[in-house]
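Reopening this one. Same input as before:
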Amino acid sequence: MKRSALFLMLLLGVLLLPAQTNRTMITDSVMKNVVSHLLPGNNRLLSPLPYYDCLHYDRTGLHFPAGHKSQDAFYEKLDSLLLFHSRSINIWHVGGSHVQADFFSHRMRSNLSDMQPGNIGVRGILFPFGMANTNWNHNYRMEYTGTWTAGRNIQRDTNFDFGISGIAATTTDSLATLTLVMNVGMTPSWQFSRLRLMGYASSDKVCPFAVEGMDETRDTVYAITDSLNGGWLLPFGELRDSVQVRLCIPSGERFTLTGLIPENDLKGINYYSSGINGAAVPTWLRCSCLPRDLGLVRPDLVIFAIGVNDAAVPYGDFNAESFKAGYRRLIQMVERVSPGCAYIFITNNDTYRRESRRVKRANRNAPLVQKAFFDLAREYGGAVWDVYDFMGGLDSSPRWRDAGLMATDLIHFTRTGYELLGDLLYNALIDDYMESTAPVDPLVRGLVDPQ
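Same output, byte for byte:
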């Protein structure tokens, strides 16, 4: 039976819903209201949405131009987690500045982790972005000491071997340290029992370590070199949410950091996000360690959000065939480690680009990217989440700006806008999940209050 069938039966018992007025917290369908009322407060499947005139709520669902087979396979894996807690779900969300800001991706991460008690898995890939004087979502704290030199994959003239994070920093400072504090004023809370230091060193004389305890109870935890995946592992045994790492770099040696993953063995949602301001498809293809690092993630679902920077060229200069060819190379990397992976392609939002010193206009390349994503979804059995369409199409950005959802540059969203996108994509995914045919209904799964 369809997962929504139970909700349709329960709808008979809901005669009246609270009246809703403009600018109040509503959802975009009666069904979503029913779900929100039936599920326990901290275990809602769907996020309630604020109302905005500029948003076409009826167009926010997922599109499947080549059928649902790959997505159904992903939903079967999700059932295994939610019903039996027998496996984890790995999601990789990759893009440019929309992802680096991490408001969008972290909203997705939090919503999925809150679906059901016990869903919290691995927090994802972290980096001390302050080393590169760039932005990140401060829901975790990364501090460092020592002198570091950083680079990003958007730079062609660097000597870094970039990986899945798209950013790296190097130091020769013998007293350099890294301090990670998770869960800075945010919920849900993530923990780790080992810390993966991604990167490389000039020789095996570089040996990161952490010191536990105080005075006579101090214990030194030395990192273990991961010869298969690169980098090092610091095993702690017990779950924790903070650590300070000392790098112990001998004179003449060098340590390069490309990311940190606070890992654990919990069965839950592992949501990895990779975003670099200005990144385009060729940018990610330049990351020489990306194929290896994907082996650490082994995604069950990839959310592709690369395209805004590819399309930031004069109309007529965007080459859709080259764009799709680059995506095929990325997908081949994923398929090598995760055959049968499901894909969601996020279309470009409406953006403005400067055509002259005084003139900015809506970027007419957005529909070309939109069509390219539908082509790729048709080719790989994936889904399209059409942001361009539900925003209102060409020249819709000013309305989103006036609603407080977009920045004045008419390219990026505000924090409110990014978090709205996170709720919308989460709801689109869960709506489709609940509507798909599967043997497990939500009552058995424990996602619905049987009362």
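So the earlier flakiness isn't reproducible anymore. For the record, The longest strand covers residues 192-201.
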